[in-house]
Amino acid sequence: xxxxxxxxxxxxxxxxxxxxxxxxxxxxxxxxxxxxxxxxxxxxxxxxxxxxxxxxxxxxxxxxxxxxxxxxxxxxxxxxxxxxxxxxxxxxxxxxxxxxxxxxxxxxxxxxxxxxxxxxxxxxxxxxxxxxxxxxxxxxxxxxxxxxxxxxxxxxxxxxxxxxxxxxxxxxxxxxxxxxxxxxxx
Length: 186
What we know:
The chain is mainly alpha-helical. The chain has a domain at about 1-95. Helix content is about 75%, strand content about 0%. It has seven helices and no strands. It has helices at about 1-10, 25-40, 45-55, 55-75, 95-110, 115-165, 165-180. Helix 2 packs across helix 3 (about 45-55), helix 4 (about 55-75) packs across helix 5 (about 95-110) and helix 5 packs antiparallel against helix 6. The longest helix has about 50 residues, at about 115-165. The chain is elongated and about 80 Å long. Mean pLDDT is about 75; it is low at about 1-15 and about 75-90.
């Protein structure tokens, strides 16, 4: 049930904005899709979010962001999402600081278009600084991930070289096991 909820929620965020769609329209559309899935799959949580939207819009944005983050992580196999062969998928897990930055940016973008020019400039400056910090953190994560991948490749290359060097020995052992009726590893 939880996996189905998380997968459904992740699908609400799958499509990027259309070229003729404003960020505000896209965000509102994503919010509605997310809320409709939460309403269908977790009605109690939906009621909490609706109440929070009325009582504390900033807390609502943060809670909605958290639901979306959980959906992305859950549907992708764990923090960081991604493909097979790695804990958490093909990417390294995001740091808590990246999640904090994303939440803060979401809060700063709330009602951005209705703010005064001075407030918009102030928010834009903060968003740019946060985006820069998030970019730098992700680059560090990517470099660490690359180092891990290189280490795995080096280990695999060494294993292949070792097996190449012991080819005749390994084949002889395999044939002996088969002929003696003992189970052989595949």
